[in-house]
Design brief:
The complex is a heterodimer of chains A (190) and B (120). Chain A is 68% helix and 0% strand. The radius of gyration of chain A is 19 Å and the shape is elongated. In chain A, helix 4 crosses helix 7, helix 5 crosses helix 8 and helix 6 packs across helix 7. About 7% of the residues of chain A have low confidence. Chain A contains nine helices and no strands. Chain B is 63% helix and 0% strand. The longest helix of chain B is centred in the middle third of the chain and has 30 residues. The radius of gyration of chain B is 40 Å and the shape is elongated. The chains are: A mainly alpha (190), B mainly alpha (120). The interface between A and B is large, with 43 and 30 residues.
């Protein structure tokens, strides 16, 4: 079996013994997803990279004594990354308490007549950024990272019912934010 | 229509879940480029180096049965203890100023053959 086919657990154990090749496979396998998660929570590349760095640093520090304890490595990484992002969001709020997320874009149908692809993406990301942080995290984990509700609950350390409630509220808020521009936005997905 | 018929509450231009999912797919994730991946591996290398440095101390300590020495604070305490003992021993054994002056004076006199001239 070559490195790419090894299980995460086997790779973590090898990385814990200082095996760089195993660490390299883990980075190749998980860095994209962890950075994407951090990016969708923080909406800032520098902060997202910083949070992802912190996540992998914790992995290297714990690799020698890492035990699965029923959780997949991916779930563990997401949990650490989510907490790293929450720390940064709290710090951001302390430093600039008046900035409460990103403003909603004008949702009226006439406000944006011809949305180019980048603009469409921006509208979606602004709507996601305007969600309360826990709703945004639940939405990101379930929709973008494709975790089940059970895995998202384990990642966020809350009940499955709480995740379902957060998702329902997030979807409602997103629909309300995007309904006005639905037709223009749908041109981008046809 | 029953009181549980949800269609009564749905506005005519509501967005269904499939459309929302389609719209959400417009958002692109951040790309983990090679520079970012290298920085993660760089952190791994630094961590491994630190661990190896600590490990060599652990092996040394275990070879002598000094397990407590493997802990960083214990090693630092031992080093501080040795320095303190050396300082105290050095201070206790140092010759008095008078003895030092006499030794120096004798050495200088021998080297230059100095003698005290006295006036008649």
């Amino acid at each position: 079996m070559n490195d790419d086919e090894d299980s995460d657990e086997a790779l973590v154990a090898r990385a814990g013994r200082g095996d760089r090749a195993a660490a390299s496979v883990l980075v190749a396998r998980h860095s994209q997803k962890v950075l994407a998660l951090c990016g969708r929570i923080l909406f800032d590349r520098a902060s997202a990279e910083d949070a992802a760095q912190e996540t992998f640093l914790k992995l290297w520090e714990n690799a020698a004594r890492w035990k699965p304890q029923g959780a997949r490595l991916e779930t563990w990484l997401y949990r650490v990354a989510t907490n790293a992002c929450l720390d940064r969001l709290r710090r951001r709020k302390r430093e600039a308490p008046d900035e409460e997320g990103v403003d909603y874009v004008d949702g009226s149908p006439t406000a944006i007549e011809h949305l180019e692809e980048d603009q469409r993406r921006r509208v979606i990301e602004d709507a996601l950024a305007s969600l309360p942080e826990r709703q945004r995290i639940a939405m990101t984990l379930c929709h973008y990272q494709e975790l089940s509700n059970i895995e998202a609950a384990a990642t966020m350390e809350i009940s499955v019912e709480a995740v379902e409630s957060l998702l329902a509220r997030a979807r409602r808020s997103l629909k309300a934010a995007l309904i006005g521009q639905r037709d223009e936005l749908m041109e981008g997905v046809r | 229509m029953t009181m549980f018929d949800s269609s009564a509450n749905v506005p005519p231009d509501d967005m269904d879940d499939a459309k929302l999912d389609a719209l959400l797919s417009l958002s692109r994730p951040l790309e983990a480029d090679s520079a970012f991946q290298s920085s993660l591996l760089h952190a791994f290398d630094a961590r491994t180096r630190r661990r190896r440095e600590r490990l060599s101390l652990t092996i040394f300590a275990e070879a002598f049965g000094w397990r407590a020495l493997a802990r960083p604070m214990a090693a630092a305490s031992l080093l501080a203890g040795i320095c303190m003992t050396g300082f105290v021993a050095g201070a206790a054994a140092s010759p008095s100023d008078g003895e030092t002056y006499a030794e120096l004076s004798a050495a200088v006199d021998q080297s230059f053959n100095f003698s005290e001239d006295t006036l008649p």
